[in-house]
Amino acid sequence: MFEEKFEKLNMTEQETFRRLVNWLLAHTYLVEGSYRFEDSMKRTNPDYLFVERNFELFQDYLEYAGFRLERDSHYGVIFLSGGYEQNRIRLDKATTLILYVLRLIYEEEREKLSVSGDIITTTGDLVHKMLSLNVVKKKPANLTLRDSLRTLNRFQVIEKTEGPWEAADTKLLIRPTILFIVTNERISNMYQLIDDEREEHDEETEADAVDPLA
Predict the structure, then answer these.
(1) What InterPro entries is this protein classified in (predicted)?
(2) d(Cα 35, Cα 1) in Å, to the nearest integer?
(3) Is the pTM of this model over 0.90?
(4) In 3-112, where do the E strands start and end?
(5) Domain ends where: 87, 108, 132?
C-alpha cells in the first residue's frame, strides 16, 4: 500500500517526495543530467535519482490522479503521461514550429556527433534554420521567440546560458526530452506542418508579385 511505503520515508524524504510530485505535475519531465555551460560538464540531478530510487512509490501515488509515470534510462528522462484532457498543454503555432525545428537540429547534430545526450545550439542558429527551411518569412518577433522558448524551457526541452532568450548568441541546450514530445511517430506530422508553412509563404510571395500594391 502507498501509505505504508510512504511512512517508511523519513521526514526529509517525505518533503522531497511532495516537492517532486508538484514538480512533475508542473513540468511533466525530469532529466537525469544538469549541464553547466561554464565548464561544459554534466552533473547528475539528485532529484532524478530520488524519483528513480522511489519510482514505484511515485507511480502508485500519481496513478490515483490518473497519470502514468514512465522512464527511459538510456536517455535519462522520467515523465508523466496520460491524465485528463484538461491537463494537456496546447502549444501555439509559433511554439510548435520552433519545437519542430529544434527537433530537426537535435536529430542532425546527434547523427553528426554520434551521441545520444544533450545538443547545444544558439537562438541565432535556430532562427537561421527556420528561415532556411522557409517555415517563416522573416525572423520571429523577439517577444514571440522569448515566450515560445520560455514555454519549452518550462517543460525541460531546452535550457539556456545567461542572457535574453531572443539574443542571437544565447546558447540553447536541447534536452533529450524532445524525443518524447516529438516522437518518431509524430515526425511525419512535423514535416507536414513545415511543408504547409512553405506553401503558405510561397502563395503569399506569388500574390505579392502579381499585385505588389495589394
Answers:
(1) JetB
(2) 37
(3) no
(4) 29-31, 33-36, 41-44, 67-72, 77-82
(5) 87
